[in-house]
């Protein structure tokens, strides 16, 4: 037994014990890294060496290795600056630096007895666990459902082969931030990994003996074609910067919705399998992202795009060049699929089918009463049967992560778990949002005074310090509310989705960055006399650095400003921003911004005026908001994602 600081290490058993010699449970990789560094404590160990010896050469990102080391440091309460246990040096690696003392023999001799007793206890509980699982499987196989477990933490999209019912699904592994394409023959219980990628994969589609999936990198996208029999794959690049959605049309074609490079609009294309070429659908083009699905006879196109009150479903008759119907739904539509000539769609809470005769939407459900309140992720259709991929029936939790920059990369510094009913407002710490079953309530922290209520989430855009006011956006209205008195001062019926509000220097006015079907527009709202005027087009972000005004052009994603003579000057390489991107500017002239990807969010950083392109700093799931605290540390508000279930057959897709 060896003493290291206030801990004990048993190298033979590879155990870490606390100061009272109680065994500390460690994750497998944390344990392996600890004892690899301990065994090689006479030198620095590089990231490459850890890749090779701890992960056995398996492909994982450097950030995954660093996160594992961060967990070990957190266990030791080791902040890294004055490292007591694990020291890191740039370009050298990591080293176990704590002094090692040998324990006295009489104390060491007592440990095997204790460990023997613990071992028998583990054997006993293991036996009970195996007996329980055996009984459960026996009962499950004699009732109306069965459970299949997969070594995968999250399933993000699922589809079934229309010919034989085989499954294909996309899984995401947070441990090494990989996306994996799984294939499961319907008649067996064996899952096969056909492909994996650190870039997001999305929308699996069966076409005969192949599976097609989309892929999305930082600034490009395309298709991955995988042969089920040979397991061989080929990558196809498309002329696009963002891939939004894919849906099957028939055995020879599928529909792709994407944003072409050098373009600020989104469009649907018919992809023909035979020659692997895309053909644009002229009527399916918008300024904002949308999802689309084409009927198998290629006559009816269904499109869905966000609206101020939820989503709009639009049906087009391509053959006769007619718009059939528009339906407004007070929820976000996440998936469209045709079943023969019937359109079926899903929002995050409900399933709908379109009545062909009346054009009305009818609700239906295939989930049990236990799962009807859970969030829908995707759904599939096979042999007339709908299966829903939805979150597990568990409450979500929110937490705040604070990151510090060390050795050129972000490290998790602190995590604070939050009351799920109390959402902090990162850009104004004097207020919070109380989430109740009846809706959302904006309150003042000091005296709990109610400032605003809404059935939908309230967006806090900015504060006006001279008026002690807060600017919010709710229910398609912009409101300025006095934080001390709780009184409404000014209100504006918004013309579009307000993404940003900026107090205008030396004026009782706000600049409003809005997005409507016509595109991005900057408005000037003089709230004192309630006048609204158009100021500029194509501004995605507007901000100040040292009193100088900058903006990001929505057409090319470049940071721009004006010289004293009025000439436009470029201050960056192109940024890849979507309508849902959020951003913050640091005191040292760095612009941090987010780019939502399928299932995750990438966080980038760029120095304004630098010739370097934006660098990706973090990839994370469940991001709600981003900010910088008073120490200029990155702070993220996160939503802990529940696990995923596939209804109808009750397949458990995560552990």
Describe the structure in your own words.
This protein has 655 residues and is mainly beta. Among the domains are: 2-103, Arc Repressor Mutant, subunit A; 425-537, YVTN repeat-like/Quinoprotein amine dehydrogenase (Methylamine Dehydrogenase, Chain H), CATH 2.130.10.10. Helix content is 11%, strand content 50%. The protein contains 4 helices and 54 strands. The strands form 14 sheets. A 4-stranded antiparallel β-sheet has the order 3-2-1-6, with no helix packed on it. A 4-stranded antiparallel β-sheet has the order 7-8-9-10, with no helix packed on it. Strand 29 and strand 30 form a beta hairpin. Helix 1 crosses helix 3 (62-76). The two termini are 35 Å apart.
CATH class of the domain at 425-537: Mainly Beta
State the shape.
globular
Show unreliable segments: 105-118, 136-152, 648-655
CATH homologous superfamily grouping of the domain at 425-537:
YVTN repeat-like/Quinoprotein amine dehydrogenase
CATH-scheme architecture of the domain at 425-537: 7 Propeller
Largest sheet: 4 strands, antiparallel
Distance between the termini: 35 Å
Which strand order do you get reading across the main beta sheet? 3-2-1-6
Radius of gyration: 28 Å
- What is the helix fraction of residues, given as a range? 10-25%
The number of E-state strands comes to 54
Q: How large is the count of helical segments?
A: 4
Mean pLDDT: 82
Structural classification = mainly beta
Question: β content, as a range?
Answer: over 45%
- What CATH calls the topology of the domain at 425-537 is Methylamine Dehydrogenase, Chain H
């Amino acid at each position: 037994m060896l003493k290291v600081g206030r801990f004990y290490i048993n190298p033979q058993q590879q155990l870490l014990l606390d100061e009272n010699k109680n065994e500390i449970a460690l994750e497998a990789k944390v344990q392996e890294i600890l004892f690899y560094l301990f065994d090689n404590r006479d030198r620095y160990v590089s990231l490459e060496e850890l890749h090779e010896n701890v992960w056995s050469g398996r492909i994982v990102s450097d950030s995954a290795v660093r996160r594992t080391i961060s967990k070990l440091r957190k266990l030791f309460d080791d902040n890294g600056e004055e490292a007591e246990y694990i020291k890191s040096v740039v370009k050298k690696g990591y080293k176990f630096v704590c002094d090692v003392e040998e324990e006295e023999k009489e104390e060491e001799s007592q440990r095997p007895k204790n460990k023997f007793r613990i071992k028998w206890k583990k054997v006993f509980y293991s036996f009970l666990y195996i007996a329980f699982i055996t009984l459960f499987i026996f009962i499950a196989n004699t009732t109306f459902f069965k459970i299949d477990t997969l070594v995968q933490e999250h399933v993000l999209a699922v589809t079934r082969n229309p010919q034989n019912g085989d499954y294909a699904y996309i899984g995401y592994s947070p441990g090494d931030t990989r996306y994996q394409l799984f294939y499961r023959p319907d008649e067996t219980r064996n899952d096969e990994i056909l492909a994996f990628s650190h870039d997001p994969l999305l929308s699996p589609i069966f076409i005969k003996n192949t599976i097609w999936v989309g892929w999305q990198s930082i600034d490009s996208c395309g298709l991955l074609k995988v042969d089920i029999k040979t397991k061989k794959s080929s990558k196809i690049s498309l002329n696009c910067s963002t891939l939004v959605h894919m849906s099957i049309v028939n055995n020879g074609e599928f529909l792709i919705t994407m944003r072409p490079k050098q373009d600020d609009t989104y469009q649907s294309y018919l992809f023909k399998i035979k020659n692997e070429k895309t053909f644009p659908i002229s009527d399916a083009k918008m300024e904002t992202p949308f999802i689309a699905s084409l009927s198998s006879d290629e006559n009816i196109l269904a499109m869905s795009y966000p609206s101020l009150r939820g989503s709009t479903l639009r049906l087009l008759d391509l053959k006769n060049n007619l718009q059939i119907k528009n339906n407004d739904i007070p929820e976000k539509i996440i998936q469209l699929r045709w079943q023969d000539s019937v359109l079926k769609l899903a929002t995050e809470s409900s399933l709908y089918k379109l009545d062909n005769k009346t054009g009305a939407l009818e609700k239906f459900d295939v989930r049990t009463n236990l799962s009807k309140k859970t969030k829908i992720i995707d759904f599939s259709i096979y042999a007339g049967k709908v299966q829903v991929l939805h979150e597990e029936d568990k409450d979500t939790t929110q937490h705040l992560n604070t990151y510090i920059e060390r050795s050129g990369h972000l490290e998790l510094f602190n995590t604070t778990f939050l009351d799920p009913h109390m959402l902090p407002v990162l850009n104004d710490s004097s207020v919070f949002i109380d989430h109740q079953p009846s809706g959302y309530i904006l309150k003042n922290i000091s005296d709990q005074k109610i400032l605003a209520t809404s059935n939908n989430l309230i967006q806090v855009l900015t504060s006006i310090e001279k008026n002690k006011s807060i600017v919010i956006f709710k229910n398609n209205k912009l409101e300025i509310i006095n934080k001390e008195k709780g009184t409404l001062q000014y209100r504006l019926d918004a013309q579009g989705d307000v993404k940003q509000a900026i107090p205008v220097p030396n004026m009782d006015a706000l600049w409003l960055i809005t997005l409507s079907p016509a595109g991005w527009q900057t408005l000037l709202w003089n709230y004192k006399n309630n006048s609204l005027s158009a100021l500029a087009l194509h501004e995605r972000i507007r901000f100040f650095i040292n009193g100088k005004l900058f903006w990001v052009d929505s057409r090319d994603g470049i940071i721009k400003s004006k010289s004293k003579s009025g000439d436009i000057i470029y201050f960056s390489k192109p940024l890849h921003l979507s309508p849902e991107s959020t951003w913050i500017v640091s005191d040292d002239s760095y612009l941090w911004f987010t780019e939502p990807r399928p299932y995750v969010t990438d966080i980038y950083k760029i120095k304004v005026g630098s010739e370097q392109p934006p660098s990706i700093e973090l990839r994370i799931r469940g991001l709600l908001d981003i900010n910088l605290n008073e120490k200029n540390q990155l702070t993220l508000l996160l939503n802990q994602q529940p696990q995923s279930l596939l209804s109808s057959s009750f397949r458990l897709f995560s552990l």
